[in-house]
Design a protein that fits this description.
The chain is an alpha/beta fold and about 375 residues long. The protein folds into 2 domains: about 210 residues, TIM Barrel; about 130 residues, Lyase, Ornithine Decarboxylase, Chain A, domain 1 (Beta Barrel), CATH 2.40.37. The protein is built from 12 helices and 19 strands. The protein has an 8-stranded parallel sheet with strand order 8-7-6-5-4-3-2-9. Helix 1 crosses helix 3 and helix 4 packs parallel to helix 5. The radius of gyration is 23 Å and the shape is elongated. The structure holds pyridoxal-5'-phosphate (PLP). Pyridoxal-5'-phosphate binds next to helix 9.
């Protein structure tokens, strides 16, 4: 019998979230962002559910190859472009579209021998200051690309630093619009947060040709806690659940787990669950992090250890040995525990928890 822990990938949720995003994005085509092995869900697992997208966007050439192996003949976009000269050969062979964000990538294209000109996405650094040409360098980069026989269509792309709140996107939208005003080509601006929060408020977003949602497709709210996934009509695509493998009765004043960091204020019934930080559950989650026990909300107690954590069963008389504890996602009774709530307890984001699901956790799809 394997350790009783399991992750479930919900294909119906992925389909539904993709539909929701498509609806919000209006006429824009949708890149399903599947970098980082589909945010930890597994490219091969999510592929069927996401093949209704217009293209797949990712970073790794190896991941692009896997998407082609699955039979996808439509667009694939490398979000960081190529890393070395010979990557362009794979782009030619697999028909990959690629971002161009720096002069070095233009140099590589200029030196690339191909009969099939490439479709490229020229990236503007409109304020994120991570990748891309600054607005005042953008036109020169466009002209250089446009003069290359290796280049077919040039699309225009930028990425927002604050679409989930904070200072917002107004300055970046303005910079992008101004520097691209009379350039031809398709445009792509929005990640999940911008798609959900800002599409209705900016012409540049409403009229863009491609959106690039990642996290929202997987059922996490990009702007939690301002909005929950449920408020955005997003369903969790990943459930992590494990079973109670031991029960302890604590007397008032007794402590629990490593460091004895939790002291029972009164007699308590505690369930020991087969999930720990080596499974991808954050060790930093404090006492009180929400869980569902047989679909009923309860909380963790004490420190998370490598292979186990403890949950409070004191007020759950029907729960016991063998009860299912949902760490995030959907319980069998339909109750939901958002990955965003757990992530917030760990001072991080749903993104990080999904991506950190450990290799040793068996995964099933439904
Ligand atoms: C990861 C990524 C996205 C998707 O972002 P989400 O916040 O997950 O929607 C979009 N565009 C680029 C360039 C990215 O790197």
């Amino acid at each position: 019998m394997p350790r009783p822990i399991q992750a479930t990938i919900h294909l119906d949720a992925l389909r539904s979230n993709l539909r929701t995003l498509r609806h919000v994005a209006g006429d824009a085509k949708v890149w399903a962002v599947v970098k980082a092995n589909a945010y930890g869900h597994g490219i091969e697992r999510v592929f069927e559910a996401l093949r209704g997208a217009d293209g797949f966007a990712l970073l790794d050439l190896e991941e692009a190859q896997r998407v082609r192996t699955l039979g996808w003949r439509g667009p694939i976009l490398l979000l960081e472009g190529v890393f070395e000269q010979r990557d362009l050969e794979l782009c030619s062979r697999l028909g990959l579209w690629h971002t161009v964000h720096c002069d070095e990538q233009i140099d590589m294209l200029a030196a690339h021998k191909t009969n099939e000109p490439h479709r490229v996405f020229l990236k503007m650094n409109s304020g994120m200051n991570r990748l891309g040409f600054r607005p005042d360098q953008y036109r020169a980069a466009w002209s250089r690309l446009n003069a290359l026989p290796q280049v077919d269509e040039i699309s225009l792309v930028t990425h927002f630093s604050d679409a989930d709140g904070g200072i917002g996107i107004a300055a970046q939208v303005a910079a992008f619009e101004q520097a691209t005003r009379d350039l031809p080509g398709e445009r792509s601006l929005s990640n999940s947060a911008a798609t959900l929060r800002h599409t209705a408020h900016y012409d540049a977003l409403r009229t863009s040709d491609w959106v690039r949602p990642g996290i929202a497709m997987y059922g996490s709210a990009p702007d939690f806690p301002e909005h929950t996934a449920t408020q955005w009509k997003l369903e969790p695509a990943m459930t992590l659940a494990a079973k109670v493998i031991g029960i302890q009765q604590l007397q008032a004043g007794e402590t629990l787990g490593y460091g004895s960091s939790f002291t029972a204020p009164a007699p308590m019934r505690v369930g020991t669950v087969a999930c720990g930080y080596a499974d991808g559950y954050p060790r930093i989650c404090p006492t009180g992090t929400p869980v569902l026990v047989d679909g009923v909300r309860s909380r963790t107690l004490g420190r998370v250890s490598m292979d186990m954590l403890a949950v409070d069963l004191t007020d759950l008389p029907d729960a016991g040995w063998g009860s299912t504890v949902t760490l995030w996602g959907r319980a069998d009774n339909g109750a939901l525990l958002s990955i965003d709530e757990v992530a917030a307890q760990a001072s991080t984001l749903g993104y990080e928890l999904m991506c950190a699901l450990a290799q040793r956790v068996p995964v099933v799809t439904t």
